[in-house]
Amino acid sequence: MEFAWDFIVWCVICFSPILIRLLHRRKAGSYPPGPRGLPIVGNILDLAGAMPHRNIAKMKEKYGPVIGLKVGAVRTVAISSAKAAAVLFKNNDADFVDRAVLDCMKCHDLHKTLLGLAPYGTFWRVLKRIYTVDMMVVKRLNETVPVRRRCVDQMLAWIDEEALNPHPIEVGRFLYSTLFNIIASLVFSRDLLDPNSKEGTEFFEMVSQMMECAAKPNMSDAFPWLSRLDLQGVRRRMNHAAGEALRIASSYVKERMEEMSKEGVHNRPKDFLDVLIEFEGDGKDDLTKLSEHEIDILVLDAQFSYYS
């Protein structure tokens, strides 16, 4: 008698949803309560709409402040109260210290070096110390007042010039450009969005493309097994934009290294790029020096973070 393969196939098709639901129930006890998702897509439809955060806020009334969700194949938890967030980030910070990494952020090993994504460990602690001690301190911020004032004056001059044309002024575009120039001045001690700087304009465009890729919903993040296919082309676009931005950043870093190798170079205030190049470990950490590639990414990170 021939084996009834078609019968087995139809049985698998019919009973798979039941088996998936049973397995889901068995595992549900280890996750916070939340809306029951559909097979494969999970709770994606529950979050559909222009404001998914409002959908999550409504779930709080039924499931409480800690809500378990399944976005595609990825389980996640939504925290919707200050008290629950304090318990999570204050009392259990070591357990939840690592960040979820978007598929596109794995290009050029960005996720290993960016402060917001790097895994918790020696390297991350060194980065945090560099930012908090050498960058985000009151003394250093006070020293940047003239830089910020100059960039704002430049923005007002751009707006005055634009006002001579008979069309509406896009104030947002000028604000973004000014913020970009302020960060660039703090990092490189130069204006990148100078009309005569072709590389600066290209750098701005590449960083903007990187932000668009990072903000774009990507099927590879909800279904990790699809990452190799890159169905939406997000990783491909990020790989190109990040590669070009790193190329330009690397040219600035090399130029500064050559400048610092000469005598009499410290006739200007020290900027963030100087701090990164001159960094040396104190012997307590395994990290003694930052590699040139790591410096390139950290320089890019400073510009990348100005949007947030």
From TrEMBL:
Q: Which InterPro entries match?
A: Cyt_P450, Cyt_P450_sf
Which keywords annotate this record? Membrane, Transmembrane, Transmembrane helix
Q: What molecular function terms (GO) are annotated for this protein?
A: heme binding; iron ion binding; monooxygenase activity; oxidoreductase activity, acting on paired donors, with incorporation or reduction of molecular oxygen
Task: State one Pfam family annotation.
Answer: p450
Iron recorded as keyword = no
- TM helices/strands, residue ranges: 6-23
Q: Say which family it is in.
A: Belongs to the cytochrome P450 family.
Cited PANTHER family: CYTOCHROME P450 76A2-LIKE ISOFORM X1, CYTOCHROME P450, FAMILY 76, SUBFAMILY C, POLYPEPTIDE 5-RELATED
* Name the UniProt record assigns to this protein: Cytochrome P450
